[in-house]
Design goal:
- Keywords: DNA-binding, Transcription, Transcription regulation.
- This is HTH-type transcriptional regulator XynR.
- InterPro entries: GAF-like_dom_sf, HTH_MetabolicPath_Reg, Tscrpt_reg_IclR_C, Tscrpt_reg_IclR_N, WH-like_DNA-bd_sf, WH_DNA-bd_sf.
- The structure is a single chain.
- This protein is an alpha+beta fold.
- Helix content is 50%, strand content 20%.
- The chain has a 6-stranded antiparallel beta sheet with strand order 5-4-3-8-7-6, sandwiched between helices. It has a two-stranded antiparallel ribbon with strand order 1-2.
- It is elongated.
Length: 252
C-alpha cells in the first residue's frame, strides 16, 4: 500500500513537470501517453490535482494546465528567500554583538522552521540546522512568534500539538505558556531557558510585515556555560532591536 502511495505521488509530480513544459495545456490522452500509464490512471491523478488547485482545466479544450495553487506556493518560497537575503546582514550584526549563533525562522502550524543560521566563532557551538523544525511552545523563537498571534492560534497549537515536556523547565500548562507569551509581548522578546534542550539558552524576537503580522523571528542561542540567565536578559533587548529594524525593512 505504501509503495502504491509513493508511486501515485511520483506520477502526480511527473504530471506537474509535463505541464510545466506545455503552458497551453494537454489533454488526458496526451498526458497518459507521456506518463506511460492507462488513461483512467491519468484521469484519476488529474482529478486529485484539480481538486487541490494544483492544475486547472479549460472546459472548452479539455486541456489541463498548471493551477494557481502552485503560484501561491511559489510566492511563499520567494517571500522566505527575500526575507533571508534581507535579514542576513542583521544576523551578522547580532553575531558580532553577542559572539553567539543567530537563527532566522518562520512559524508553521505550531512549529518553528529554521530557514537561516549564522554560526558563532566560538569553539563550543550549539547544534542546529537549516530546515529543521522544533516545537513552538518550548523554544525562544516559537514563543516570540506566538506572542504576536491571537489566543485562538495558541489554543489550536495546544490542542493539536500538545505541550510536550523536554526538560525540567519546559512549560507544560496553558497557564505557564500564556504568562510567558504575555511577558514576551510586553518586552518584545522571549526566552528559552533550557526548555527545549539542556545546556542551551536563547533570546528571540518576532519580525512583523507591513500588515503588522508576525512573519518570522530571529534568535541568539548558545550554551549555558557562556549565556547565563543574566546575560540572556541582556541579549534580549539587542535581539528585539535588530528584529524591529528588519520589521521596518519589511514595511512594519
Amino acid at each position: 500500500m505504501a509503495s502504491q502511495s509513493i508511486q501515485s505521488v511520483q506520477r502526480a509530480l511527473s504530471i506537474l513537470e509535463i505541464l510545466r513544459n506545455h503552458p497551453d495545456g494537454l489533454g488526458v490522452t496526451e498526458i497518459s501517453n507521456r506518463l506511460d500509464v492507462a488513461k483512467s490512471t491519468a484521469f484519476r491523478l488529474l482529478f486529485s490535482l484539480l481538486e487541490e488547485g494544483y492544475v486547472q482545466k479549460d472546459d472548452q479544450t479539455d486541456h489541463y494546465r498548471l493551477g494557481l495553487k502552485l503560484l501561491q506556493l511559489g510566492n511563499e518560497v520567494a517571500k522566505s528567500m527575500d526575507l533571508r537575503r534581507l535579514a542576513t546582514p542583521y544576523l551578522k550584526r547580532l553575531v558580532d554583538l553577542t559572539g553567539e549563533t543567530t537563527h532566522l525562522a518562520v512559524y508553521e502550524k505550531g512549529e518553528v522552521v529554521y530557514i537561516d543560521k549564522l554560526e558563532s566563532s566560538a569553539t563550543i557551538r550549539m547544534y542546529s540546522q537549516v530546515g529543521l523544525r522544533a516545537p513552538a511552545h518550548c523554544t525562544g523563537l516559537g514563543k516570540a512568534m506566538l506572542s504576536g498571534l491571537p489566543d485562538e492560534e495558541i489554543d489550536r497549537v495546544i490542542e493539536t500539538k500538545g505541550l510536550q515536556k523536554f526538560t525540567e523547565t519546559t512549560l507544560i500548562t496553558r497557564g505557564q505558556l500564556m504568562e510567558a507569551l504575555k511577558e514576551a509581548h510586553r518586552n518584545g522578546y522571549a526566552f528559552d531557558d533550557e526548555e527545549h534542550e539542556r545546556g542551551v539558552r536563547c533570546a528571540a524576537a518576532p519580525i512583523f510585515n507591513f500588515e503588522n503580522k508576525v512573519i518570522a523571528g530571529i534568535s541568539v542561542a548558545g550554551p549555558t556555560t557562556r549565556i547565563s540567565q543574566e546575560r540572556m536578559r541582556q541579549i534580549g533587548p539587542q535581539v528585539s532591536q535588530i528584529a524591529k529594524e528588519i520589521s521596518r525593512e519589511m514595511g512594519f
